[in-house]
Structure to design on (370 residues):
């Protein structure tokens, strides 16, 4: 049998040829059948695209205009107990509690991505029993703070926000203890760099405790959706509008341990904080912090390895974003002056929510050691 083009032609091409033949003036015995098949193929194709359009249009309409969920009683309480200050024309939310009388110790809490200061609610009361002032903010683009767009979010700007808050509260001359998580870890390292290099307007850091943050790009494994959103260019704004609660909750559950899962109420509160002020629409811009970590690794990891500030790391070892033992071994190798607390083996990426008692005790042990 000879190998000619007929046997290797795609089906679609063959169909087109038969359709063309059916249109020739000279009719053949098979022409009516060929013409019928050609019309059938075209009708099926048109119907398929019609179904796709009919499916996509209402979905887009729903997801582009779906209203944000209502604040839960817990979020209303958190919001009403907080305050706002203005940073470059934007309102930034913060919460402050006055705790132990007779102590001058101040603690500043820096939250992670994509959540908010509410991440600290399970350890808040315990911390106020140790410190005179406990302060937490929602970074620009997060929680109850303004979420300007278009806007070029950066770790450097968030550090500026923190410095502005400290000045707003009249604490510029105070030595500040910082407790951070995830995204907040990188903001803390920028603040540490400024403090150690005596930059103008810097915070004087008394101690720094990090927790489960991707401070080393080489041991950081962002989730698939994070990589898609940060690197998809003009498609990213479309994708941010299509993310819904079910998609979000599935992703966030993956970074909690199997025995430390958040409740449905907690998941809704996290999602509500994101949707507040259309925060879902700025996630792609905020996620550029992952690229910033790589670009400025020398600056931020260098600050961590060279500082004389007391350091501690609280680590949930089941973290898929900063996996064990790879992450903690690199941390202990590079940051020799730091102490480390590795929590229960079932604790994952959100240790302050998954094991608040273990987290607080680990931090208390560190802060009382100097």
């Amino acid at each position: 049998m000879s190998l000619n083009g007929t046997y290797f032609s795609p089906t679609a091409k063959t169909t087109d040829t038969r359709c063309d033949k059916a249109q020739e003036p000279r009719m053949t015995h098979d022409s009516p059948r060929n013409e019928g098949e050609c019309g059938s193929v075209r009708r099926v194709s048109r119907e398929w695209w019609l179904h796709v359009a009919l499916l996509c249009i209402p979905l887009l309409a729903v997801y582009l205009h779906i209203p944000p969920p209502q604040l839960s009683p817990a979020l209303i309480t958190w919001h009403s107990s907080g305050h706002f200050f203005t940073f470059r024309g934007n309102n930034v939310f913060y919460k402050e509690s006055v705790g132990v009388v007779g102590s001058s110790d101040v603690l500043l809490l820096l939250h992670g991505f994509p959540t908010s200061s509410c991440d600290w609610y399970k350890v808040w009361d315990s911390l106020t029993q140790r410190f005179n002032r406990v302060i937490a903010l929602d970074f620009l683009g997060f929680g109850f703070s303004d979420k300007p767009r278009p806007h070029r979010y950066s770790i450097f700007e968030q550090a500026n926000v923190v410095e502005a808050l400290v000045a707003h509260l009249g604490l510029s001359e105070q030595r500040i203890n910082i407790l951070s998580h995830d995204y907040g870890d990188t903001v803390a390292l920028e603040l540490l760099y400024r403090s150690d290099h005596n930059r103008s307007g810097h915070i004087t850091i008394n101690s720094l405790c990090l927790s489960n943050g991707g401070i080393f790009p080489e041991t950081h494994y962002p989730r698939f959706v994070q990589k898609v959103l940060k690197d998809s260019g003009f498609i990213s704004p479309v994708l941010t509008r299509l993310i819904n609660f079910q998609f979000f909750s599935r992703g966030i559950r993956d970074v909690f341990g199997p025995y430390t899962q958040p409740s449905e109420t907690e998941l809704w509160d996290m999602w509500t904080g994101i949707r507040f002020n259309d925060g879902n629409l700025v996630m792609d811009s905020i996620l550029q912090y992952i690229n910033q970590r790589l670009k400025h690794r020398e600056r931020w990891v260098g600050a961590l390895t060279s500082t004389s500030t007391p350091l501690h790391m609280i680590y949930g070892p089941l973290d898929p974003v900063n996996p064990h033992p790879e992450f903690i071994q690199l941390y202990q190798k590079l940051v020799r002056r730091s102490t480390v607390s590795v929590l229960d083996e079932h604790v994952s990426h959100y240790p302050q929510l998954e094991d608040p008692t273990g987290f607080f005790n680990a931090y208390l042990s560190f802060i009382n050691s100097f």
User: Anything to note?
Assistant: The chain has 17 helices and eight strands.
